[in-house]
Amino acid sequence: MLSPEDAWVAIAAEAETLPAERVSRAAAVGRVLAEGLTATVDVPAHDVSAMDGFALGGDVEAGATLPVDGIVAAGDPPGAELRPGAALRIMTGAPAPAGSDRVIPIEQTEFKAGDAATVRIVETVPTGSHIRRQAEVTGVGGPLLAEGELLTPGGAGVLATHGIHEAPVYRRPTVATLSTGDEVVPAEAEPGPGQLRDSHRDFLRAALAQLGIEARSLGIARDDPAELRAKVERGLDSDVLLISGGVSMGEFDFVEQVLGDTGLGCRILFDAVAIQPGKPLVAARHDRGWVFGLPGNPASAMVTYWLFVRPLLRVMAGAEDSFWQGALRGRLGGGLPFAKGRDRFLPCRLEFSSGEVLVDPRPPLGSHDLVAYGAGAGLVRVPKFSAPAAAGEPCEVLPL
């Protein structure tokens, strides 16, 4: 049985980023750039005004009054000229006229409109004030966004500014899900005596959607090795196959047996991790992708997904991630139980207040307590062999 850190090492040793593809700018948001992007235009395209005000040439003393020869608006082509001893009214983003070396904001002046418009200078401004210089943000051919960066909504705006309609991003993994068990029925069905609705499919579908992945459901496999094998074989067409249930030591737990079938080409990396809940986790590799056998108890499936599957999926899509990456230091708002020889991961609610993470643990009844884990916004870690912790003590928490 591996420690969680060693289990991740076994996964990371074989994790590979998927190939790149080009997608539309909108579809690329939330994905990792596979190549660096360069500027196609100067930004700003010309020297432009940073304020609504008046373009001036040279020093003008406070109290001086200048004639206003006209107005330069945003969108006007460059080419306006400033007459010595005069001013031009100018709008934010308008090209700076030739002969100007500064812009004075309108609130630092007294403007008199009319056929013989004038402006009185109330406060002086130094040379270069409120002028954005050509290419000061980016110049043609200069770097925009680097390979490995996540394309944010702001990044989409950058691409739009430069007329970049498609972006090279790493491909997202395809994922298939398969629930198992004679006792499991679809969530839409009415369970009979001894049966229960499938919660795994909806959890995984929603969790994968957070990564922009649309899961392919293979339905429910009965506790029959032949049926399970047939559905597993279909799932191997996906980059990652997630099987729920059938991985413990019971007489009808056939997942590990089926994955060991040499005809499927799967190689099991490990079949147990020293965590609670989630110990009976199976990870397997084949030449086209991955298979994870998640425990059948809902909380165990959730915990193993958050700790191991999600970071692998993000690595495959070009992001940097690993086991427990992104965990924060917090302060307990309630007590934590002890842990024996396995790290425990308990659901909790989080509050961010005055720069501090407040962690309110929600100790579950057990790995079957779907409600406790379903309401949790994070996982708080109880390291193995830990004594109980009281409210106010420090802790580590992974926001979900």
Task: Based on the model shown, name its key terms.
400 residues; elongated; 8 helices
SSE layout and pairing:
Layout: H1 4-12, E1 20-24, H2 25-28, E2 37-38, E3 48-49, E4 53-56, E5 65-72, E6 87-90, E7 102-105, E8 109-112, E9 118-121, E10 131-132, E11 143-145, H3 153-161, E12 166-170, E13 175-180, E14 184-185, E15 196-197, H4 200-209, E16 216-221, H5 225-235, E17 240-244, H6 255-259, E18 267-270, E19 275-276, E20 282-286, E21 289-294, H7 298-316, E22 328-332, E23 343-353, E24 356-361, H8 370-374, E25 378-382, E26 394-399
Parallel strand pairs: 5-6, 13-16, 13-17, 14-15, 17-21, 19-23, 22-24
Antiparallel strand pairs: 1-12, 2-11, 3-10, 4-6, 4-7, 5-9, 8-9, 18-20, 20-21, 22-26, 23-24, 23-25, 25-26
Helix pairs in contact: 4-7
